[in-house]
Amino acid sequence: MRDRNALSNTDLWKNGVGCSRLERARAISDKERDEARATPDKERFVEGSSATEDEPRDDLGRFWALDPETTFLNHGSFGACPVAVLHFQAHLRARLEREPVRFMARDLERLADEARTALGTFIGAEPDDLAFVPNATTGVSTVLASLDLAPGDELLTTDHAYNACRNAIDRAAARARAGVAVAQVPFPIDSPDTVTLRVMERVTPRTRLALLDHVTSPTGLVFPIAELVGELAKRGVETLVDGAHAPGMLPLDVAAIGAAYYTGNCHKWLCAPKGAAFLHVRRDLQSRVRPLVTSHGANSPRTDRSRFRLEFDWTGTHDPTPYLSIPEAIRHLDSLVPGGWPEILVRNRTLALAARRLLVATRGLPLPAPDSMIGALAAIPLPDSPPGPSPRKAVYQDLLQDDLVDRYGIQVPVMPWPSPPRRLLRVSAQVYNRIDQYERLAAALGELLPRE
Ligand SMILES: Cc1ncc(COP(=O)(O)O)c(C=O)c1O
C-alpha cells in the first residue's frame, strides 16, 4: 500500500504527485497518436485536431462547439466535448456502421482494451480493474445493487452527495431494510479535516459502506478522499467514491486511493463524448460486482479474461464510441497548451480560485472554503431566494439562473443547497474560460440580486 499521506489534496497540488502520472499518460497518448498516424488500419481521426505551434493559444474556445453568444461557466454539469473529439467519434461511428458485425464482433474488444489502457494510465489504475459504464450514476447504482445488505446494516454518505446517487443509496437501503446515515458537512467550511471528522462521527459497528464524493456537486469541494478512505478502512468500512468530476480536474491516482470502488466520468473534465465513464473495482471484490444488465459474459466459457471484464464489456448492443474516444480526448486536450494536462489542471484551478476571489470580493463575503479544497469548481453562497410564491416557473433550478441566461447570456448554475431558500452559485473553470467572463457575471449579479 502506498503512503496515503502523500496523496492528500494539498500535497497533490504542491508536489505535483499525479502530474508525473499525467506526463506518462501524455507520453503514451503521444505514442498512440504516432502509431495511429503510422498505422492506417487503426483508422484514427487525427488530422486537423490539434493546436499547432503557430496558432494563438489564448482563446481556446475555438476548439469547442459552444455557442459564442453564451458565456458558458458551467462545464461541471455535463462537460463539453471539443470538435476534434466529436469528429473522431463520428469517424468511429461511420466505421461501425460500414461493417457493424466486423466492428462489434472483431474490432471492439481490441479497441476497448486500448481505451482502457490509455484511461488506466491517465487515472492511475490497472486496466484489468476498470469497467466502462455510461455515466457515474450507473457506476454508483451498479455497486449498490451488488451489495449483500442485511436488515439493520447502515450506508453512510454526506449532505453534499449528488441527488441521483443519494436516491440510489436510499433505494438500496430500503430494499434491504438497512439504514442511511447522512453526515452533515458544513459549507462554508474551514478545513478538509472537518469533512473527515464529520464522516467518522457517523460510523457505527453497522456501517457497511460509505458513498463519498471526490468533488462535491452542489458545493464544488474537493474532499480529502485518500484520508477518508484510509480512516474508514481502519474502522472496517469500505468506500464507494463518486469521482464524477475528478478525472481531468484533479491529479488522480485511483489505485493509490485504495477505495473498494471508484467511479468517474470521462465526459466531464476529460472532455470525452457523453456516455463515457468508468467503474474501478478493487481486485479482491470483482467477483462480487455484477453489471445491472446480465448478458453473454455470465456463462462465457472463455478463460482468457476475468468474469468481471467479460460481464461488463458486453451488456447488450450499445454505442461504444463515447468510451472508445477517451484516448483521443486525452490526446487532444494535451495538445492544446504547451504543458499538456499538468498545465490544464493548474490553469483551470488557478482560474477557479481567481473567479471565486472576484465573486466573493464583489459581494463582500469571506472565502467559503480554503484554497486546498478547490479544483476547477467553486461555489459561492447567495442571499436566500425571495420568500413567497415565485412570479413565474423557473426553467432552470432558480429564477436567478433563468435571468442570467435570458438577460445576460450567462450559463451558470444556481443550486438550492442544503435546501431552499438557501442557495449557492457554482462556477466552473475550463481552458476555454477567461477571467473577464466572471467579471461579467459579478456585474450581472450586482444588478439582478438587489431587484429580486
Ligand atoms: C458528484 C456527482 N456525482 C454524479 C453525477 C452524475 O453524473 P452522470 O449524470 O454523468 O451520471 C454528477 C453530475 O454532475 C456529480 O456531480
Task: Describe the structure in your own words.
With 452 residues, the protein is an alpha/beta fold. It folds into two domains: 215 residues, 3-Layer(aba) Sandwich (Aspartate Aminotransferase, domain 2), CATH 3.40.640.10; 112 residues, Aspartate Aminotransferase, domain 1 (Alpha-Beta Complex), CATH 3.90.1150.10. It is 42% helix and 12% strand. It is built from 16 helices and twelve strands. The strands form three sheets. Strands 2-8-7-6-5-3-4 form a seven-stranded mixed β-sheet, sandwiched between helices. The chain has a three-stranded antiparallel β-sheet with strand order 9-12-11, covered by helices on one side. A two-stranded parallel ribbon has the order 1-10. Helix 4 packs antiparallel against helix 5 and helix 6 packs parallel to helix 7. The radius of gyration is 22 Å and the shape is globular. Pyridoxal-5'-phosphate binds next to helix 6 and helix 7. The site of pyridoxal-5'-phosphate has 13 residues, from helix 6 and helix 7.
Query: Fraction of residues in helices?
Result: 40-55%
Distance between the termini: 54 Å
| Bound small-molecule species | pyridoxal-5'-phosphate
Which parts are unreliable, with pLDDT below 50 for 5 consecutive residues or more? 1-19, 32-57
| Amount of beta strand | 5-15%
Tell me what the CATH architecture of the largest domain is. 3-Layer(aba) Sandwich
Q: What characterizes the major β-sheet? A: 7 strands, mixed
The CATH superfamily title of the largest domain: Type I PLP-dependent aspartate aminotransferase-like (Major domain)
H/E topology pattern? HHEHHHEHEHEHEHEHEEHHHHEHEEEH
Rg from Cα:
22 Å
Count of separate DSSP helical elements: 16
Mean pLDDT: 90
